[in-house]
From TrEMBL:
One of its GO terms (molecular function) is inositol-3-phosphate synthase activity. This is Myo-inositol-1-phosphate synthase. Residues 207-311 form the Myo-inositol-1-phosphate synthase GAPDH-like domain. GO terms for biological process: inositol biosynthetic process; phospholipid biosynthetic process. PANTHER family: MYO-INOSITOL-1 PHOSPHATE SYNTHASE (PTHR11510). It comes from the Bacteria. Belongs to the myo-inositol 1-phosphate synthase family. It comes from Streptomyces spongiae. InterPro entries: Myo-inos-1-P_Synthase (IPR002587), Myo-inos-1-P_Synthase_GAPDH (IPR013021), NAD(P)-bd_dom_sf (IPR036291).
Amino acid sequence: MPEFRSEPRVGVWLIGARGSVATTVVAGCAAVTAGLNAPTGMVTETPLFADTGLPSLSSLVFGGHDTVDCPLPKRAEALAAGGVLPHGLPSALSSELTAADREIRSGGPSAGDTRDPDDLIDAFTTDILDFVRRHGLARAVVVNVASTEPTPTGSTLPPSSLYAAAALRAGCPYVNFTPSTGLHHPALASLADASGLPYAGRDGKTGQTLLRSVLGPMFAQRSLTVLAWSGTNLLGGGDGAALADPAAAAAKNAGKERVLADTLGRTPEGETHIDDVPALGDWKTAWDHITFDGFLGTRMTLQTTWQGCDSSLAAPLVLDLARLTSRAHEAGLTGPLTDLGFYFKDPVGDGPPALGDQYAALAGFAERLRELQGEGNAR
Ligand SMILES: NC(=O)c1ccc[n+]([C@@H]2O[C@H](COP(=O)([O-])OP(=O)(O)OC[C@H]3O[C@@H](n4cnc5c(N)ncnc54)[C@H](O)[C@@H]3O)[C@@H](O)[C@H]2O)c1
């Protein structure tokens, strides 16, 4: 007999489901649902989203694709050993981690894969639809948290775009939390438009770019002239290893630099670098060095140091985005969710680049959902 639940259940299909971010999402959702931890960092748990009809955390069911087979409980143990998850949490949540692990399917393309792009899209679509059917889900949101891939050259669809196409084929809202191409591929643009599905992206804004989207507007609003803005990031883990590839790092850095041009109105001197330091694991240090001129041309500097745990910064945002995109789909919203620019380095659509304005847009989005919820209740 299926368990009776009054609230419909919502699937969260993670591409890169065995990675650090995905594991922290699954463990974090279970920990908050069980009352073991507070939902710190989740904007959807603040009063801003009261009465907006978001799916509850306990209604979320996790599955996904990955190309490695390390079981989720083991991955969670490794994250706990690195201080990313609280000590003891993986054993306390072993049944939830094991349940999510059972729902992870082999992704692709793997080495020697002979399937053509359409076969791969079909296989991914079948996995997602099977997940939705077996769990009796009201809908599923596909979220890309797989390793960053280089920007593709030529017309071949990169893996992130194969998964994005599968999301469309399965009728699922889509979120790209990475800088990879995903739905941005020209071959998918008209399909995305015609799908009538909501989508959001790209590249979660969790550290250096978050600070830049606050500090850039400050310099502009105070009429200070930023001459140079240089940044260095040191990080390890799977993300650090993937970003050791200069082509993948270039995809990431483009988003980090875009926010400066957009908030300052010009591109200052300086570059952004990413160095892989495996010993740091999931912990990141980001330095920014900003040179600016004040009144009468007096030259000054601001230096910032951000020391963050990448997965614990990213996971609450992924949970927020899964809930928001699911609710947008339920409410009949379609196309690029520009009002979710608050969450991204390189947001879809033409939203504002400054964090304060993006928060105001997010508040407007919450209000819209609240109104739609009120209309739905009144019917
Ligand atoms: N943590 C943050 O603060 C943050 C912020 C913004 C964006 N991101 C992005 O999130 C992504 C995940 O980061 P992470 O730290 O979890 O990395 P990770 O290396 O720990 O995990 C990535 C996972 O993707 C899987 N993968 C690779 N290719 C795949 C494919 N073709 N199909 C399915 N799975 C595949 C890998 O096997 C791995 O398990 C990265 O792209 C990163 O840039 C992270």
